């Protein structure tokens, strides 16, 4: 994490999390009363988005800490829950939707250990299973070198048996997870792609072998792992490239240590395209055979998606029929033609994932 400028909300000054970050960054930071001052600072740079990756604001989360993932009704949703622990990312993927989310985007660390503790106590009393991730508005492990957030979360989740934490990353920042008593309630998860896509579209991320080695280390520390192929980038030769990545996974990890694998292809709001063209002029990611989906996002033409997904699903199944494979935001035809079933009823996919989490992580059993 290379932070050039640190801003601090006066409301979090002196708090332990704030002081830990200041110490680790070796920056005292500038106290700002209003976020608008930071936006003015960023706007003065030629690429405010890039500067937002080097500018950290330590503050409280002004909104909900726990929220349901905003899937759309047109596609099958996995009923995921988001723990909103921070925003934005130090890495720089061409396709990253976060570039276009916040205005302009900025690294925010939310000082919320106490609220997280309370929320998890509430969840522990609920009569349902939760799959909770911190990787929706940020990468879960970019915070590891400067804060105790990942290790703190693992410790807190270990105390209950209703929820599993999924830490999703493209980094190899796992050292602080090593000696934590995780009680199997954390899944460490990597987004994977082909070496070519990582090289051309995922600036600043760890290489494929580095991600898989980190996953293997986590397994050796007793963690379960999961993998997400998202975004699958469809281009000539991609079926071979993606099935080779699947083969690589099993060189490092045994099937029984994998809780699930998800697959989703590149899709984007039309507003993201000019951003990619401006910030990544060498990227060709927006120039495939796309059509507008029911949620207004551009998606690859369906027969193309089905062909690649089928090759990937078949390769995973040739290695293990036990690993739960699912799609992120796909429809009935895609499910049926690639996996041979469709979780039709509302909540059905979520229940299937809950079952997999329960089996691997000992949820709801008092363990
Ligand atoms: S790693 Fe994830 S959050 Fe970070 S830039 Fe890439 S897509 Fe965005």
Please summarize the sheet with the most strands.
8 strands, mixed
Low-pLDDT ranges: none
> What integer is the average pLDDT?
94
Q: List the bound ligands.
A: iron/sulfur cluster
Measured by DSSP, the beta-strand proportion falls in 15-25%
Spatially, the strands of the biggest sheet line up as 4-5-9-10-11-13-14-18
CATH class type? Alpha Beta
**CATH fold label:** pyruvate-formate lyase- activating enzyme
The CATH architecture can be given as Alpha-Beta Horseshoe
Give the radius of gyration: 20 Å
Beta strand count = 18
Backbone shape: globular
Give the helix level as a range of percent: 25-40%
> Helix count, per DSSP?
13
Structural class by secondary-structure content: alpha/beta
Distance between the termini: 36 Å
Number of domains: 1
Provide structural commentary.
The protein is of the alpha/beta class and 367 residues long. The protein has a single domain, classed as pyruvate-formate lyase- activating enzyme (Alpha-Beta Horseshoe), CATH 3.80.30. The protein is 36% helix and 20% strand. The chain has 13 helices and 18 strands. The protein has an eight-stranded mixed beta sheet with strand order 4-5-9-10-11-13-14-18, sandwiched between helices. Helix 9 links the parallel strand 13 and strand 14 (258-265). Helix 11 (302-319) packs parallel to helix 12. The radius of gyration is 20 Å and the shape is globular. The mean pLDDT is 94. Iron/sulfur cluster is lined by residues 89, 91-93, 96, 98, 139, 170, 205.
């Amino acid at each position: 994490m290379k932070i050039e400028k640190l801003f601090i909300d006066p409301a979090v000054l002196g708090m332990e999390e704030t002081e830990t970050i200041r110490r680790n960054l070796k920056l005292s930071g500038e106290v700002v009363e209003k976020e608008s001052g930071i936006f003015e600072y960023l706007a003065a740079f030629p690429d405010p988005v890039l500067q937002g990756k080097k500018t950290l604001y330590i503050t409280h989360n002004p909104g909900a800490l726990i929220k349901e993932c905003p899937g759309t009704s047109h596609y099958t949703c996995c009923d995921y829950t988001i723990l909103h622990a921070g925003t934005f990312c130090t890495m720089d993927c061409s396709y990253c939707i976060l570039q276009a989310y916040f205005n302009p985007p900025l690294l925010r660390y939310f000082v919320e250990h106490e609220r997280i503790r309370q929320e998890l106590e509430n969840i522990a009393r609920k009569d349902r299973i939760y799959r909770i991730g911190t990787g929706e508005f940020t990468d879960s492990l970019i915070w590891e070198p400067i804060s105790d957030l990942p290790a703190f979360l693992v410790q807190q989740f270990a105390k209950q048996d209703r929820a599993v934490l999924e830490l999703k990353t493209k980094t190899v920042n796992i050292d602080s997870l090593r000696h934590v008593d995780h009680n199997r309630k954390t899944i460490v998860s990597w987004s994977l792609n082909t070496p070519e896509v990582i090289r051309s579209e995922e600036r600043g991320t760890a290489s494929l072998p580095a991600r898989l080695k980190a996953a293997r280390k986590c397994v050796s520390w007793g963690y379960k792992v999961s993998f997400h192929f998202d975004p699958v980038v469809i281009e000539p030769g991609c079926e071979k490239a993606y099935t080779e990545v699947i083969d690589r996974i099993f060189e490092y990890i045994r099937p029984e240590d994998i809780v699930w694998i998800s697959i989703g292809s590149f899709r984007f709001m039309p507003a993201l395209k000019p951003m990619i063209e401006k910030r990544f002029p060498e990227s060709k990611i927006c120039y495939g055979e796309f059509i507008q989906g029911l949620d207004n996002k551009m998606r690859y033409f369906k027969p193309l998606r089905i062909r690649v997904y089928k090759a990937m699903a078949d390769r995973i199944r040739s290695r293990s029929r036990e690993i739960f494979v699912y799609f992120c935001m796909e429809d009935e035809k895609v499910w049926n033609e690639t996996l041979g079933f469709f979780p039709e009823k509302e909540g059905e996919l979520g229940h299937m994932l809950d079952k997999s989490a329960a089996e691997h992580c000992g949820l709801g059993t008092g363990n």
